[in-house]
């Protein structure tokens, strides 16, 4: 695979034009996030790809916290803790509001060898003590979420509480506001720190198992490898399982007539409140909500991806669907026993095809992969969904405080300021509150927020190229390969499809061939536009999207591998899926007829 | 039952395929004994009988051909195409003018009659020796399809024997310094194939044993085996039955039974059927299932000829016509030395011991 010439060349990051009317977008991001002339020489020679998996839309200024913090954490674990020999951390840059990333390789063989010593010892320790460490991880996350929930955003009253005067607790409101805000930011850093603790090792075990499978069984479909490893009773499936249970309960309690298509959650709740069984059902719902409604409606990294708690329309739509299916006599259960049997049968049959030595490696790595996979599958729920949706809401409380004092027109505008600007606004707010003087903030911040909202809206219409700069001869960074599915082949495909074309290739994630009408869904808000029988074309999906999988006939995503959410769900529903096409949402338009071949990993625009 | 002839008490001239096993390959050739094994393993194989190498020897002895063959071969220089051709031609003439001895003939006639109703049969040579690829190379793989009537069956058996002395066969043996030769013959009920082809119970290109590779075309198997059409090409997971790859090609020609009732003829495939896939999901499932069973029986990847009969329902319409081990499994041999799980894991992170 290695060649001496670059596999492909993409546009220079320095030659990307600003879309008309978007001049000045740079003000939303930190100075170090830009392709700056002062490091042009180096940056132009690197390979950058659009991280559309995590950042499919232009970044609001505040949300950039969820770029810095994760890359600080990922780099720390990969580079400074485990010292993954050939790769340090991930750098990012922002172009027209979109995030491009690039790995930092270690090229000096002596350095690689030195790092290998660290890695073997430290990673070895983690693999050996996985269960204990993971249990402790879950406690850490639970404690962290608890701390976040307990974090109080103080009010700024005209007079301080009596306690301040009489009990000498030393905590005045100005201090409490500033302290709460900095603690909120630190909690987020802490979450990201936990988030990446096991990630590389978990994916690495899986990647190694996949390599062993492919070395011995060159034609084995990726999806079979994934099926052998995937957990059956993982947290990922729990929210929808709970909804199915609630659907059955609604029928048992004979309150199902309340669930009418087209009714809002509020209207359904009101109907249920009218009867005892209805109220009983609502009580049961309350129990389910915590924690299972903490699933994000998007992939979690934008402030507007709330949870089911914030937007109950999604779980209620799912409930309506499940109830209708049950009443039509359909079986809506996940066939967990059958899935478990099939998973074991695959492992047994593939294993039996191998020679003794290969069989041993296969068995050991399969066992290790299954051991580490609960973390791989579950960390998202705890970190990306549960913590992060709560955290955005906490930031909203600061926004509300600023809005209350005229620093913002609307509390939601807090996300148009960077976290440092918010700190600055809060500084002035408590200063003016303390002194009683006239704050400048109310004149300063609202126009900035308004300008940036308009900018983001315009930037959303721009389609970022999948990659920038010069591609390496081969992709070797384990993180890029494992977490983003960026392989040498994928980079070549992107290079080929730069001029458009009617065929896209990606990972064959779920078998079958389907032709149908495409529905391009760029944001979670557009989910409700999906019509029965359409093919979903999106950047990435999350468990919150579950309800639409019963409507669609196939799925195509921009980013993701065979273990991505869309791939897992499509295999379960028996829908063809091609994931990681790079630019399906850019190249395919709603209404076009496309052909999805989930066995070959190709998508063809038919017309 | 044919009466055991004199001298054939210990060495039968013919036997039903169902009575053969692996131990009979030296007396009946590899193909017949493998068919016997398949029947014993309850693989659907068209019924029939086998003619032994003893029958061949009886034929040669009765016709006084031994000396003639010997002297013709003595003049052969394997590097001299003309000398090979001349020897082949003179042996061919001599063998065709010699009658099949009555003892042999009577047994063949009776075995054929046991199949009842003068059915069309396939008459195939069943070469000696383990490595049937060698036999292919040596031109010892004659097949006569749609043979009907006892006389024609006897002629076809003799034609198989004659093929022992085709120019390539003579050259091949001469190079190895062999002179003596013998051959068995398999006679099986003809499958009136709607579709037929070849299946490998591994991917012959990559050596992946979790795959079944299937080539299929319309009509009798000649078109696929002889490479006369580009067959439909399928790669199916042995483990999940998923079709991993499927290429449907335009199949211009097919072999069908001759209207006169004897032999097979090549005809053009009508336009609309050419590009139609000749296997559907149930057919692929049935093939993979049979392939797994055959491989399971022999314990190694197999190269299987198969046919799906007209006018019957799957899986009863699927027949295995022959099976032999896949000798070359390229990728499997090039595999790197197996490493421990831990060192492989370290390798993923670029932290292998040798980095």
Which helices and strands occur, and which strands form pairs?
The complex is a heterodimer of chains A (607) and B (355).
Chain A: H1 40-44, E1 47-50, H2 65-81, E2 87-95, E3 98-105, H3 109-128, H4 130-150, H5 162-166, H6 173-195, H7 199-216, H8 222-229, H9 238-252, H10 265-273, H11 276-292, H12 313-327, H13 336-352, H14 356-404, H15 419-435, H16 441-459, E4 467-469, H17 478-484, H18 488-496, E5 503-505, E6 507-510, E7 513-521, E8 535-538, E9 554-557, H19 565-573, E10 577-579, H20 584-587, E11 593-597, E12 602-605
Parallel strand pairs in A: 7-8, 8-9, 9-10
Antiparallel strand pairs in A: 1-3, 1-4, 2-3, 5-12, 6-10, 7-11, 11-12
Helix pairs in contact in A: 2-6, 4-6, 4-14, 6-14, 6-15, 7-8, 7-14, 7-17, 8-13, 9-11, 9-12, 10-11
Chain B: E1 14-16, H1 25-28, H2 30-40, E2 48-51, H3 53-62, H4 65-74, H5 81-97, H6 102-114, E3 121-127, H7 132-137, E4 143-147, H8 150-162, H9 167-175, E5 183-189, E6 193-200, E7 211-218, H10 222-225, E8 232-237, E9 243-247, E10 253-257, E11 264-268, H11 271-274, H12 281-298, E12 302-309, E13 318-325, H13 330-334, H14 341-348
Antiparallel strand pairs in B: 1-2, 2-5, 3-4, 3-5, 6-7, 6-12, 7-8, 8-9, 10-11, 12-13
Helix pairs in contact in B: 4-5, 5-8, 5-9, 6-8
What does this structure look like?
The complex is a heterodimer of chains A (607) and B (355). With 607 residues, chain A is of the alpha+beta class. In chain A, 50% of the residues lie in helices and 10% in strands. Chain A is built from 20 helices and 12 strands. An 8-stranded mixed sheet of chain A has the order 5-12-11-7-8-9-10-6, covered by helices on one side. Chain A has a 4-stranded antiparallel sheet with strand order 2-3-1-4. In chain A, helix 19 links the parallel strand 9 and strand 10. In chain A, helix 7 (199-216) crosses helix 17 (478-484) and helix 9 packs antiparallel against helix 11. Chain A is globular. Residues 1-9 and 330-334 of chain B have low confidence and may be disordered. Chain B has 355 residues and is an alpha+beta fold. Chain B is globular, with a radius of gyration of 23 Å. In chain B, the strands form 3 sheets. A 6-stranded antiparallel sheet of chain B has the order 9-8-7-6-12-13. A 5-stranded antiparallel sheet of chain B has the order 1-2-5-3-4. A two-stranded antiparallel ribbon of chain B has the order 10-11. Helices cover 37% and strands 22% of the residues of chain B. The longest helix of chain B has 18 residues, at 281-298. Classes of the chains: A alpha+beta (607), B alpha+beta (355).
